[in-house]
Amino acid sequence: MTARTPRLSRLRRLTPGRGEEGAGRSGRRRGATPKVVALGGGQGLSASLAALRRITGDLTAVVTVADDGGSSGRLREELGVLPPGDLRKALAALCGDDDWGQTWARVIQHRFQSEGDLHGHAVGNLLIVALWEQLGDPVQALDLVGRLLGAQGRVLPMSAVPLELQALVRGHDPARPEDVDTVRGQATVALTPGEVLSVQVVPGAPPAVPEAVAAVLDADWVVLGPGSWFSSVIPHLLVPELLDALVETKARRVLSLNLAPQPGETEGFSPQRHLEVLARHAPKLALDVVLADEAAVPDRESLADAAKRFGAAVELAPVARQDGSPKHDPELLAAAYDRIFRMHGRIGPWR
Predict the structure, then answer these.
(1) Is 58 helix (H, G, I), strand (E, B) or coil?
(2) Single pTM value for the model
(3) What residues are paired with 316 via a beta bridge?
């Protein structure tokens, strides 16, 4: 376990105690749902949130802020703001299934089609950035957007500083397959034809959003993944205060694996190799459960061995859509999470 930083200690003191009214396992009223924090970005996090909101009313998303492509990249470059795209997707995933929720989910995901400067911009990105400029507080602005949408949970950036993703990649230039180059930018890293060896963020050791750290420390369950491994999952482990919280938290930790390797970024990766890469970036991180789709694991013994290095058990479940696409089915993923929450570790008082 890492030494607690002064800031992390202060956040621990500001977080309601485990035995205080309305907080923690022992203090939560009977029948309440578990406190769950989900970390990631992009479509992977959206899939996890769409499942988790079906089984808990106390859900927080902690989202990566290194996107530099598309609408987010343009707004980031022009205005110097956090990239809003992954935050918008998380908010849309938390919208309810009623007419209000689904209407707003469609609105904020809508992209303008034109011959001018608005082409490709998502309505939700512009709304989020407008509120950031009005309020001067990214967390307060996201909370306000969530209230407008009727979002069933809270969305937080992992850092209040826009980050640049840098990766060491072997063979990024196909003409020099053995050379290792530094590749900059999340969009470029995600599409590299080479082998990603490691990633880092710039600036190094960025500050975490205090509310995100506090949520992890006070959670019952923390869910990491699925998502783009090097550009959405691992970046959370590169924010020191957030990593310290993930190591220190009393919460149970679930790692949700992808259904298939991602072209470019993790081309040819086995399920167990995803774990090996994670361990290289965060060797002190422990896990309780590794969740994988049963059809996506050809070598169950090797995956179990890799999970043991984290102290984790492997749960295999059918979580993919039935149409053959490499996408999670929200209902099946919700059922898998619910079973894990009930059967692993402590049986929480919400049961």
Answers:
(1) strand
(2) 0.87
(3) 292
Q: Where are the alpha helices (DSSP H) in 28-168?
A: 42-52, 70-79, 85-93, 99-109, 123-135, 138-149
In angstroms and rounded to an integer, the radius of gyration of the C-alpha atoms of the chain is 19
**What does the pLDDT read at residue 31?**
47
Convert the pLDDT of each residue in 203-225 to its tens digit. Answer: 999 999 999 999 999 999 999 99
If DSSP states are collapsed to H, E and C, what string results for 121-135? CEHHHHHHHHHHHHH
Whether residue 248 is predicted with pLDDT greater than 70 in this model: the reply is yes
Q: Give Cα separations from 61 to 4, 44, 156, 257, 272 (angstroms).
A: 23, 12, 6, 17, 25
Tell me: the pLDDT tens digits for 50-100? 999 999 999 999 999 998 888 988 999 999 999 999 999 999 999 988 899
**Residue 20 predicted with pLDDT over 50:** no
Q: How far apart are CA 156 and CA 220, in angstroms?
A: 18
Cα 181 to Cα 168: distance, rounded to the nearest angstrom: 6
> What's at 296, amino acid-wise?
A
Angle (nearest 5°) at CA 190 between 186 and 193? 130
Tell me how far apart the alpha carbons of residues 164 and 201 are, in angstroms, rounded to a whole number: 6
Q: Which amino acid, residue 321?
A: R
SS3 300: helix
